[in-house]
Amino acid sequence: MTVVVTGATGRTGGRVARAARAAGLAVREASRATGFDWRERSTWAGVLAGADAAYLAYPTDIGSPEAAGAVGGVAREAVSLGVRRLVLLSARGEERARPAEEALRGSGAEWTVVRAAWFAQNFSEGPLVEELRLGGGLVFPAAEGLREPFVDVRDIADVVVAALVSGGRYVGREIDVTGPRLLTWGEAVAEVGAAAGRELSYRCVPAREYRERLTGFGVPDAEAGFLVELFEELLDGRNARLSDGVRQVLGRAPRDFAAFAREAAGAGTWA
Ligand SMILES: NC(=O)c1ccc[n+]([C@@H]2O[C@H](COP(=O)([O-])OP(=O)(O)OC[C@H]3O[C@@H](n4cnc5c(N)ncnc54)[C@H](OP(=O)(O)O)[C@@H]3O)[C@@H](O)[C@H]2O)c1
After folding, report:
1. Helices 153-165 & 11-22 angle (0-180, nearest 10)
2. Whose Cα sits closest to atom 13 in ligand 1?
3. Domain 2-116+153-177+241-254, what architecture?
4. Which of 4, 6, 12 to mutate to test ligand 1, by most ligand atoms within 8 A of the CB atom?
5. Which residues of the chain have pLDDT under 50?
6. Which amino acid residue places its CA nearest to atom 6 of ligand 1?
7. CA distance from start to end of the chain
8. Is 108 left (phi over 0), alpha (psi -120 to 50) or beta?
9. Where are the domains of the chain?
């Protein structure tokens, strides 16, 4: 089986590519680095033609206004080229992601939607890392007592590959994937600090103040506005519960946040 992996240079795509190769699949990596651009229809067919399946990870956010059009477009093109099995990364509790999921379902593909919790790797890869490494803590609009089942992206990758290789078992299904433990943002930062051997602080700020911080960091105003509205919706307690998708699909417990923090600290992530 040949699988196209979008976002192959990113957090989930990189792990999906690795897990797919380990499972014996041929992997075709797709991102702008290899000539595939979600925003350029003319770049889609060259990457998709001749493949059997694809992992779709829409950049920035699956709930962004243009995501449904792009996901639907790529999915329909894939199906027309004979790429039938499509697995879409979506987000748990995110109503804004539903149009993109619907566009996938309407494409005629053998679809699976993987709805992930907040990534553990948001603390080790991406924009929050520098703040933890250089700023000595994290500022974010998640309330002090709000809890989230942070998921290790390697578990997402393993679930995606299982959905690709398990015949039709996960076709037409949404799978919620979370970590095994609910943590507040403050507790997660404290576990990162304990693993890194550093005192790290957490401070919750109101959404409006966070938007000003984002634009101060150079995030375009429209994107900052979208992100802050999204965080306000998502960080209301709706996701403060565990799901058993990882155990159902993989037959084992999800990786724990403390193990993630130890490994990332061992690699010098927050030194
Ligand atoms: N962060 C979370 O906690 C969380 C939770 C649930 C769901 N999600 C979803 O995860 C998705 C993002 O996945 P990720 O975090 O694995 O990705 P990521 O680490 O943010 O990396 C983005 C990837 O997309 C590629 N890319 C960027 N712009 C592109 C374009 N115009 N065309 C083609 N490729 C492009 C990048 O490579 P190039 O630069 O080479 O193009 C890179 O490989 C979003 O849909 C988000 O909603 C995130």
Report:
1. 50
2. 57
3. 3-Layer(aba) Sandwich (3.40)
4. 12
5. none
6. 91
7. 41
8. left
9. 2-116+153-177+241-254
Residue 239: C-alpha distances to residues 44, 97, 117, 121 (Å) = 34, 15, 8, 18
Task: Write out residues with Cβ below 6 Å of ligand 1.
Answer: 7-13, 31-33, 36-39, 57-59, 61-62, 89, 91, 116, 118-119, 122
The pair of three-digit structure tokens given for residue 222, joined into one six-digit string: 């429209």
Q: What pLDDT digit, counting tens, does each position of 185-198 carry?
A: 999 999 999 999 99
pLDDT of residue 109: 98
| CA-proximal residue: ligand 1, atom 41 (nearest) | 32
CA gap 59, 10 in Å, rounded:
9
Q: Count Cβ atoms within 10 A of the Cβ of residue 192 and give its class: 0-12 exposed, 13-18 middle, 19 or more buried.
A: buried
pLDDT for the residue numbered 217? 82
* Spatial CA neighbour of 93 closest among 85, 101, 84, 81: 101
Q: Which atom of ligand 1 is nearest to the CA of 151?
A: 3
3-state secondary structure of 30: strand
CA 13–ligand 1 middle distance (angstroms):
8
- Give me the pLDDT at residue 60, please: 87
Cα dihedral sign for 77, 83, 89, 95? Answer: positive
Q: What is the pLDDT of residues 18-57, one digit of tens each?
A: 999 999 999 999 999 999 999 999 999 999 999 999 999 9
pLDDT at 216: 87
